[in-house]
Specification:
three-stranded mixed sheet, single chain, glycosidase, alpha/beta, Glyco_hydro_1, beta-glucosidase activity, 455 residues, GH, seven-stranded parallel sheet
């Protein structure tokens, strides 16, 4: 059964892929690297590298094509994930399953606006419970949401991600929206949906299935642009508005004070019951770290063209400070290499958020998809090896300082469809040949990881 007509991202591609060029190469995610049919081959690659876990997401629409239990369950989708899980376990790999990685069923977007509505909370809980019932006897690590910040910012502030919404005054050719309110609503209901899924898992399944459940949050590290108090405060606010936006409710039951103060009535409120349900609603934290930014104090009248992007009164840049870039630039214009930041964000998390168990659920760097390179040249990703060597060194330092990091996942195993970047960049440690039947080839970084894991 094809799911593409039921998936919001497929609709986004059709609307924007060729019209507004929201996807850089006008590609789509219909087949991508065809993991659906090649999962045994990919599991074999992982086993050959001596990996012991694989993080992947379940597509909500593949399980529930219409988004709700009442709309019917796709048995073929259930069978596919059972086959994948069983293949992983048979080859010594533990599945870490993400329930929502931005691929919302189109039916729910059409019916009530997806994560802009409180109705999403029960529908997500029901979908999550179906997954617990079908797969929980073998799956011991669940992740409710992947990067709610990216979904809210990309989908409702810049419009670069589905559903492609933003304020009209931004003139970004969006489908409608309000960048001063909708990202806060989308994040609010993502948090409540997360809490509802965790609650049902802990009440009905955790004791018998003996698994753990958490959430994956992304954060950059933020460095004051200067040594002034204003810029130091701006860096703290930037962390609040990206990381604390989720970690404060998950740990303390409410948004950071800086957000309450600056966003005001546009920031939704939790009831006392919701606050209590959110507090401590994870067994482990998944942390995605890629890059760092300078933060400078940037006053703004939040009553004029309000937007999440200016609410923090912090101007974020990777530009030169005292003639120095924050780090080497990757293929993506948002990713500058700053390995020390992984240690800093881990220590910050330990000290501010009650010393949680942490898995690094994404860390990686991309290169340009250059068709002019020979295969041998394309596989020589020494920059990626250097990236991982330095990040893992700082990760080791954080562990030595007492941070409870229990695992590390590279982004990504394979080159793939990278959202609005399409196929213009490659994040994989294994090369996918888009011109030769999607054949997989290990890059030097894959061989480096294999040797690293043998030591």
């Amino acid at each position: 059964m094809s799911i593409k007509n039921y998936l919001m991202y497929s609709s986004f591609e059709k609307i924007f892929g060729c019209v507004a060029e929201k996807i850089k190469d006008r590609s789509n995610g219909d087949v991508t690297i065809d993991a659906y049919h090649r999962y045994k081959e990919d599991v074999g690659i992982m086993k050959g590298m001596s990996l012991d876990a694989y993080r992947f997401s379940i597509s909500w629409s593949r399980i529930l094509p219409n988004g709700k239990l009442g709309g019917g369950v796709n048995k073929e989708g259930i069978a596919y994930y059972n086959n994948l899980i069983n293949e992983l376990l048979a080859n010594g790999l533990q599945p870490f399953i993400t329930l929502f990685h931005w691929d919302l069923p189109q039916a729910l977007e059409d019916e009530y606006g997806g994560f802009l509505s409180p109705l999403i909370v029960d529908d997500f809980r029901d979908y999550a419970e179906l997954c617990f019932k079908e797969f929980g006897d073998r799956v011991k690590h669940w992740i409710t949401l992947n990067e709610p910040w990216s979904y809210s910012n990309g989908g409702y502030v810049t419009g670069n991600f589905a559903p492609g919404r933003c304020s009209e005054w931004q003139k970004l050719n969006c489908t409608g929206g309000d960048s001063g309110t909708e990202p806060y609503l989308a994040s609010h209901y993502q948090l409540l949906a997360h809490a509802a899924a965790v609650q049902v898992y802990k009440k009905k399944y955790q004791t018998s299935q003996k698994g753990k459940i958490g959430i994956t949050i992304i954060s950059h590290w933020f460095i004051p642009f200067s040594n002034t108090i204003n810029d130091q405060n701006a860096a703290e606010r930037a962390l609040d508005f990206m990381y604390g936006w989720y970690m404060d409710p998950l740990t303390y039951g409410d948004y950071p004070h800086s957000m309450r103060s600056l966003v005001g009535k546009r920031l939704p409120k939790f009831s006392k019951e919701q606050s209590e349900t959110l507090k401590g609603s994870y067994d482990f934290l998944g942390l995605n770290y890629y890059t760092a930014n300078y933060a400078a104090h940037s006053p703004h009248d939040n009553s004029i063209n309000p937007s999440y992007s200016t609410d923090a009164h912090a101007k974020l840049t990777t530009a030169e400070r005292h003639g120095i870039l924050i780090g080497a630039k990757s293929a993506s214009d948002w990713l500058y290499v700053y390995p020390k930041g992984i240690r800093e964000i881990l220590l910050y998390t330990k000290n501010k958020y009650k010393d949680p168990i942490i898995y690094i659920t994404e860390n990686g760097i991309d290169e340009v998809n250059n068709d002019e390179l020979s295969l041998e040249e394309a596989l020589a990703d020494n920059v990626r090896i250097d990236f991982y060597y330095h990040h893992l060194s700082f990760l080791k330092s954080a562990i030595e300082d007492g941070v409870k990091v229990k695992g590390f996942f590279a982004w990504s195993l394979l080159d793939n469809f990278e959202w609005s970047s399409g196929y213009t960049v490659r994040f994989g440690i294994n090369f996918v040949d888009y011109k030769d039947g999607l054949r997989r080839h290990p890059k030097l970084s894959a061989l480096w990881f294999k040797n690293f894991l043998k030591k």
